[in-house]
Amino acid sequence: MTAPERQEDGAVVRVAAVGDIHLSPDCRGLLRPSFETLPLCADVLLLAGDLTRHGTVPEAEVVADEVRDLGVPVVAVLGNHDYHSDREADIASVLTDAGVSVLEGDRTVLPVDGGRLGIAGTKGFCGGFAGRSAGEFGEREMKDFVRTTRRAAEGLHGALSDLADCEARIALTHFSPVPDTLAGEPVEIYPFLGSYLLAEAIDGAGADLAVHGHAHLGTEHGMTAGGVRVRNVAQPVIGKAFALYHLPLTRTPEPSGAGNAPGRAGRPPAADAPM
């Protein structure tokens, strides 16, 4: 594999991303050959959750071996599968020991091609989308359900806001922020695949790209109401070891408020790189 050419009009960051790899001990070594090509074509690898099948430590150790010492930074969020066995803290620890930055309501900054790439991450949660969403009303269980999503969205908003001085910003989640990338999934389960609160957080704080997984039957391309490009990188959707995107590294203006495409005025859009 040869590295894609860089854009002539300025520096870019090359972003490789994949989610829903669902590794287990019988998958050992499955993705490593493809991941070892990343230094040729990418500056960072994003993992969009559901890295394991059942959220066990032995499965996490397989994931760690696949991404250890790749030669590019690896940034991840966990997914619902990674929480299934109530060992999410141990899974995060195993990945961290392998050099992965595991995000949950926080962020990381990477120096890339003379600029800074900021990545804010959260697993996110359910709730649905505008006009067809759950609300914080009624039984304690329902209010707790929606508040879980709200807390995740608030953490994502805060983390993205802290990255306002970066030349490029990415929102990394497992659950989807928009319904666009769910097309193909049964509409009855849309409320369990994501929440509009995540999109509100992304638009309110500003980002150049949003990446998620979770929707295996969805589509790759979507967009928030504020104009942020959204990509579903679940492996069953992209059909390869990782998808590749190019982001221009350009000074981001301060956000102007939710729903007004903050941080995107005068910026060229993200480009999806063929592989």
What does this molecule look like?
The chain is an alpha/beta fold and 275 residues long. The protein has eight helices and 14 strands. Strands 4-3-2-1-13-14 form a six-stranded mixed beta sheet. The chain has a six-stranded mixed beta sheet with strand order 5-6-9-10-12-11. Helix 6 packs parallel to helix 7 (196-205). It is globular. The N and C termini lie close together (9 Å). Mean pLDDT is 90; it is low at 1-8 and 252-266.
Protein topology:
Blueprint: E1 12-18, H1 32-35, H2 38-41, E2 44-48, H3 57-67, E3 74-77, H4 80-83, H5 88-97, E4 100-102, E5 106-112, E6 115-122, E7 128-129, E8 132-133, H6 140-161, E9 168-173, H7 196-205, E10 209-212, E11 221-223, E12 229-232, H8 235-238, E13 243-248, E14 271-273
Parallel strand pairs: 1-2, 2-3, 3-4, 6-9, 9-10, 10-12
Antiparallel strand pairs: 1-13, 5-6, 7-8, 11-12, 13-14
Helix pairs in contact: 3-5, 6-7
Mean pLDDT, to the nearest integer, reads 90
Proportion of residues in β-strands: 15-25%
**Rg estimate, integer Å:** 17 Å
Main sheet overview: 6 strands, mixed
Total of DSSP H or I helical runs spanning 4+ residues: 8
Number of β-strand runs = 14
End-to-end distance, in Å?
9 Å
Multimeric state of these chains? single chain
The helix content, as a percent range, equals 25-40%
Low-confidence stretches: 1-8, 252-266
Widest sheet: strand ordering: 4-3-2-1-13-14
**Outline, from the CA principal axes?**
globular
Q: Structural class, please? A: alpha/beta
Order of helices and strands: EHHEHEHHEEEEEHEHEEEHEE
